[in-house]
């Protein structure tokens, strides 16, 4: 709702914000310049500039030098201290999720999966490569390896563009994700990652690697992901531990 007592630039910014949140202005879309906005609305360029600055402060738009002002991708919070599937976590936050399955096959495990999952050298894994979409926008590309011996026939069981991997593992194989080890580091998108996430090559991304354990403490899943650097905030809950000698 627009506050009729608010300054004019706030009213303009609120209307634009409503258009963004309703999807009428989409992530990555260029908005009118302050000159065009001022002319269309019959206001001064100063008022239009203040409206755009207000949207920038709220994180809804960003100005790119020499290009203009664009709607930013929605910032999504993911808690690193909670082990949950991508689908479940985004649903909890009220987002609509889907996946574009790039690859789904059973194959020989590579050296990284063999080491992480403690597999024999000739072991096979089920590999899923999925582009993760939140509210229709690509935000991550995820490569998941699951030990094939623990979940025979997994790839044929579900449509992983819509269904939760953790849900299938739980319901069909009794595998319950219980704990995990996750690392995160800054990286830049190579050509393939950039294409998948609608980025420019070299754009900042977050690289996450996770090893997931079942209720018996056995590793069953090894995940390597790249997240858009402009779309995710990683949150960690910290507790003050007891200090030795104090």
Number of domains: 2
Strand content: 25-35%
What level of helicity do the residues show?
25-40%
Return the average pLDDT rounded to an integer. 86
Q: C-alpha Rg, in Å?
A: 22 Å
Number of helices: 8
CATH class bucket of the largest domain: Alpha Beta
CATH architecture of the largest domain: 3-Layer(aba) Sandwich
Q: End-to-end distance, in Å?
A: 53 Å
- In CATH terms, the superfamily of the largest domain is Chorismate lyase-like
The dominant shape is elongated
Which sequence of SSEs, written as H and E, runs from N to C?
HHHEEEHEHEEHHEHEEE
Keywords:
246 residues, alpha+beta, Arc Repressor Mutant, subunit A, 6-stranded antiparallel β-sheet, 8 helices, 28% helix, elongated
Question: How would you sum up this structure, described in words?
Answer:
- This protein is α+β, with helices and mostly antiparallel strands and 246 residues long.
- The chain folds into 2 domains: 8-71, Orthogonal Bundle (Arc Repressor Mutant, subunit A); 76-235, Chorismate lyase (3-Layer(aba) Sandwich).
- 28% of the residues lie in helices and 33% in strands.
- The protein contains 8 helices and 10 strands.
- The strands form 3 sheets. Strands 4-5-6-9-8-7 form a 6-stranded antiparallel sheet.
- The longest helix is centred in the N-terminal third of the chain and has 14 residues, at 8-21.
- The chain is elongated, with a radius of gyration of 22 Å.
């Amino acid at each position: 709702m627009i506050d009729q007592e608010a300054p004019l630039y706030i009213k303009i910014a609120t209307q634009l914000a409503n258009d963004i949140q309703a999807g009428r202005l989409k992530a990555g879309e260029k908005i009118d310049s302050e000159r065009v906005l001022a002319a269309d609305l019959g206001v001064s360029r100063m008022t239009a500039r203040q409206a755009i600055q207000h949207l920038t402060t709220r994180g809804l738009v960003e100005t790119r030098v020499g290009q203009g002002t664009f709607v930013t991708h929605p910032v999504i919070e993911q808690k690193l201290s909670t082990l949950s599937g991508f689908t479940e976590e985004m649903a909890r936050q009220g987002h609509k999720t889907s996946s574009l399955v790039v690859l789904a096959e059973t194959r020989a495990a590579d050296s990284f999966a063999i080491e992480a999952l403690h597999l024999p050298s000739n072991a096979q894994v089920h590999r899923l490569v999925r582009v993760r979409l939140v509210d229709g926008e690509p935000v991550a590309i995820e490569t998941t390896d699951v030990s094939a011996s623990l979940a025979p026939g997994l790839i044929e069981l579900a449509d992983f563009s819509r269904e939760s991997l953790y849900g299938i593992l739980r319901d069909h194989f009794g595998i319950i994700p219980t704990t995990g080890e996750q690392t995160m580091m800054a990286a830049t998108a190579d050509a393939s990652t950039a294409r998948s996430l609608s980025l420019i090559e070299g754009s900042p991304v977050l690289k996450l690697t996770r090893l997931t354990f079942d209720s018996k403490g056995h590793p069953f899943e090894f995940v390597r992901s790249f997240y858009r650097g402009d779309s995710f905030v990683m949150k960690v809950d910290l507790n003050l531990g007891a200090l030795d000698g104090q």
